[in-house]
Task: inverse folding
């Protein structure tokens, strides 16, 4: 069974640009969560989607947005990039709604560098 | 506001020694406490988890100790091996579909 797949693996952008990251969850997983990982702050929750609906949202500015498609694949978009957006963006999928968001399966992440 | 405080930030342990990482929380609604292990270039992976109805859970060389009254939990790695060198994150969440809140991580280095 394939794991969580995130593309691209690395991305270099300049300030002011926008970026779209993609995540394919494990087959059968309907929940997709996004986290931002930085050396100083650890993992910070961005948002979570279940059945194409945003169910939870973290404390990030509106420049960060996402969506989920009917096949559970998810995309995350960051507009008007800032230097501070440089981070590893992790996507995680989980199995069922009833079990909540406890057991997360993470992808290897997209390393975003903003110059 | 950080809801889960993790310490130490980094840890160096001799091979065969015991690694101990501590976490503290404030939210009494938390009732699920997992630990994730992350190797360089990889995403975190669930290592072991505990619920407040037990004070300890052991899986192989990994043990979680939980102190509900102190609102603290810790990860013990017995007989630490170089292959255990990784970043460890504690996390917590209330029941239901609420996102996990992670600590800032502990970078463990096990040296021979």
Result:
């Amino acid at each position: 069974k394939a794991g969580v797949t995130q593309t691209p693996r690395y991305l270099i952008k300049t300030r002011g640009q926008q970026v779209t990251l993609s995540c394919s969850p494990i087959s059968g997983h309907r929940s997709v969560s996004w986290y931002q990982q930085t050396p100083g702050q650890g993992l910070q929750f961005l948002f979570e989607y279940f059945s194409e609906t945003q169910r939870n949202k973290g404390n990030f500015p509106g420049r960060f947005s996402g969506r989920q498609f009917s096949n559970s694949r998810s995309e995350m978009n960051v507009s008007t990039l800032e230097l501070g957006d440089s981070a590893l963006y992790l996507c995680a999928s989980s199995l069922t709604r009833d079990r909540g968001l406890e057991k997360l399966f993470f992808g290897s992440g997209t390393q975003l560098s903003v110059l | 506001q950080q809801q889960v405080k993790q310490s130490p930030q980094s840890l160096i342990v001799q091979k065969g020694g015991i690694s101990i990482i501590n976490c503290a929380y404030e939210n009494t609604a938390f009732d699920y406490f997992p630990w994730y292990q992350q190797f360089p270039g990889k995403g975190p992976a669930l290592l072991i988890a505990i619920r407040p109805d037990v004070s300890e859970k052991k899986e192989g060389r990994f043990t979680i100790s939980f102190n509900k009254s102190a609102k603290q939990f810790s990860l013990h790695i017995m007989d630490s091996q170089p292959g255990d060198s990784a970043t460890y994150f504690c996390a917590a969440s209330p029941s239901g579909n609420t996102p996990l809140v992670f600590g800032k991580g502990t970078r463990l280095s096990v040296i021979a």
In short: The two ends of chain A are 37 Å apart (CA to CA).
